[in-house]
Amino acid sequence: MSSTAATGALDHHHDHTTRTGIPNKKLLMWAFLASDCMFFGSLISTHLIYRLHPPPGNPSPRDVFDIPLTSFSTFILLMSSLMMALAVNAIQKGNLRSMRFALLTTIFFGATFLGCQVFEFTHFVSEKHLTITNSILGTTFYTLTGTHGTHVAIGVLWLILMYVRSFKPADPGAHRGWFLRNLLHVAAVTGLVLSALFTVLAVVHTLETGGTAAAFAGQHFALLAALVVTTGASLVLARPSGPVEFGPAHAIDVESMGLYWHFVDIVWIVIFTAVYLLEYL
What we know:
Elements: H1 3-7, H2 24-52, H3 67-92, H4 96-126, H5 136-165, H6 178-209, H7 213-219, H8 221-237, H9 251-276
Helix pairs in contact: 2-5, 2-9, 3-4, 3-9, 4-5, 4-6, 5-6, 5-9, 6-8
């Protein structure tokens, strides 16, 4: 008997039931990411080509971009990659509580990045008058960064589903209504993320316009109420109700999610360098 089998450890990197020795889920994810590399490569190349030969009347990127804000959102996305790695490490060790905390933190960082992107797009359209139709820069910029933002949003939703899945009871038959409870849990966490995102954006807008706290509370009472309700519902639904099914045997699912999330982060580093920083070299 091998030492791995003797200690009861699980080998999460090789599945000897497949011809390649690689788990099918991981192999499928690698194949998808390879196709996505070509997709993003074409979008980035298109932006770089038009950058070298801008048509007359194209706005200067230096007059549009907000490097401090984008640098902050880049840092947040990189930190989310760290938390995703910690989530994978935690579930491989069977530490479900740490995995859930790391997933929630990754969700928070991903939503923060999306909030920065929404704020940036809104600012570019309203203040800089850069739209997807009035210039080549706007067309290539919004298409590229918007596609990446869509990938981040899909990743955040996937993380929420993974987090809620970790609460599935080991014996669903002994817990009636577990499926409905999980649906409510997904709705509560999703609502919490969205309400927190829009609350932060509303706070930033209030600070920019010189509004007061009282005016903010009056104008956004429904948003604040939604934030409180979804927070309470998420906490109640996260209370343990017995043994759960999720464990080290499901580490490959979290690892596949991690591959996707790290890929999204790497793509953003390339976009940040090629689209933003290159204009200042």
